[in-house]
């Protein structure tokens, strides 16, 4: 990606990669946290294919910046790719298969979903 004639090595600009990193226990995932008073915004990138086991939490809204993921919600599989967005209602069990190269921004309506 070029910005003002400079090559950007990562999809996220430096001010995002300077945010606190969070430990998402999935191999190949790098994630940065923007902490709000009542919500969290997570900027994440997956360098390896990954399986996210079934889980639930507060509401989640996510937009795919690059790559693809299969999301299973209410026993229905949907594939999301660059430019797609999806919503997971609070306390709704869901799981996913994420493919290497997946990059997204997720907003959680839960201030303590992740820790630095």
Structure notes:
The protein has 116 residues and is mainly beta. It has one domain (20-108): Jelly Rolls, CATH 2.60.120. Helix content is 3%, strand content 52%. It is built from one helix and twelve strands. The protein has one helix spanning 14-17, and strands at 2-3, 6-7, 21-22, 29-35, 40-46, 50-55, 60-66, 68-73, 76-81, 85-88, 94-98, 103-108. The protein has a six-stranded antiparallel beta sheet with strand order 3-4-5-12-7-10, with no helix packed on it. A four-stranded antiparallel beta sheet has the order 6-11-8-9, with no helix packed on it. The protein has a two-stranded antiparallel ribbon with strand order 1-2. A hairpin with a 6-residue loop joins β3 and β4 (29-35). The longest helix has 4 residues, at 14-17. The chain starts with a strand and ends in an 8-residue tail after the last strand. Residues 1-8 have low confidence and may be disordered.
Short description:
Helices cover 3% and strands 52% of the residues. With 116 residues, the protein is mainly beta.
Summarize this structure as a short list of keywords or feature phrases:
116 residues; 12 strands; 3% helix; single chain; Jelly Rolls; disordered N terminus; 1 helix
């Amino acid at each position: 990606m070029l910005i003002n004639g400079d090559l950007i090595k990562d999809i996220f600009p430096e001010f995002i990669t300077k945010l606190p990193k969070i430990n998402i226990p999935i191999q190949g995932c790098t994630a940065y946290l923007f902490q709000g008073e009542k919500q969290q915004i997570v900027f994440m990138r997956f360098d390896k294919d990954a399986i996210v086991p079934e889980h639930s939490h507060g509401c989640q809204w996510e937009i795919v910046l690059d790559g693809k993921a299969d999301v299973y919600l209410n026993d229905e599989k949907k594939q999301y790719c660059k430019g797609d967005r999806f919503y997971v209602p609070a306390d709704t069990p869901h799981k996913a298969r994420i493919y290497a190269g997946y990059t997204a921004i997720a907003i959680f309506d839960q201030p303590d979903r992740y820790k630095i």
